[in-house]
Structures are given as structure tokens and as C-alpha cells.
Design goal:
Number of domains: 1
Number of strands: 0
Bound molecules: magnesium ion
CATH class: Mainly Alpha
CATH superfamily: MazG-like
Helix content: over 70%
Radius of gyration: 17 Å
Strand content: under 5%
Order of helices and strands: HHHH
Oligomer: single chain
Shape: globular
CATH architecture: Orthogonal Bundle
CATH topology: Helix Hairpins
Length: 113
């Protein structure tokens, strides 16, 4: 795990633990686990919806709402992080595996120069 990603995870974990929002650090039954997965996924998609709404406003108003876009994308990222903790993932390792897989899958899309 990269130091920066680990620092982000540690910061989020401390924030959540102080509020009892750290289901990912607790022993959960399968039913509780699925419930936490459901709750976190729905919230992540809610935040992604808020991001999409900011994109819509930027388009409609013809001016970029950069600060709002960044905030909503960060909200989405926080829930994505919490999902990765629930699934006990090493995000660095999983990302590396996926990029290696995509290198093969999309090899024919590689620029020649
Ligand atoms: Mg939000």
C-alpha cells in the first residue's frame, strides 16, 4: 500500500471510528455485512448522483462548478474507500492487477508513437 493511500485510509478510519461508522472494522454476520454493503453502495451512488447533478448544472449554466464537482467526487471516493475496506481489499494491489489485465485487453489501442 502506498504511504499516501494508507494515510487517507487511516484518516478516514479514525473519522469513522470516532462516530461508530466503521462497520468495516467490526465482526459482522453475513446479513450485517450485506446490509453494510448495501448501505455504503447506495450512499456512494447518491454522492455520484450529486456529482452528476453538478455536471448537469455546469452544462446548463455554461460555467464549470469546479469546487462543487471536486467536493462531490470526494464524497463518492470516501464511500468507494469504505467499500474497499468492507471487502478487505488492498487497493494498490487490486489496481495493479487490473491495469496489467487492461494492458493485455487493450493492447491494440496502444499509440504507436
Ligand atoms: Mg455530497
Amino acid at each position: 500500500m502506498s504511504d499516501r493511500l494508507q494515510a487517507i485510509i487511516d484518516r478516514q478510519r479514525a473519522f469513522d471510528a470516532a462516530r461508530g461508522w466503521n462497520a468495516y472494522d467490526q465482526e459482522l454476520s453475513e446479513e450485517e455485512f450485506v446490509k453494510a454493503l448495501h448501505y455504503t453502495t447506495v450512499n456512494m451512488l447518491g454522492e455520484l448522483g450529486e456529482f452528476a447533478n453538478e455536471v448537469k448544472k455546469s452544462h446548463r449554466e455554461g460555467s464549470l462548478r469546479i469546487s462543487e464537482l471536486r467536493e462531490e467526487l470526494t464524497d463518492t471516493f470516501i464511500y468507494l474507500l469504505k467499500l474497499s475496506l468492507l471487502l478487505d481489499m488492498d487497493l494498490n494491489a487490486e489496481h495493479e492487477k487490473k491495469v496489467a489485465k487492461n494492458e493485455i485487453r487493450f493492447a491494440h489501442h496502444k499509440k504507436t508513437k
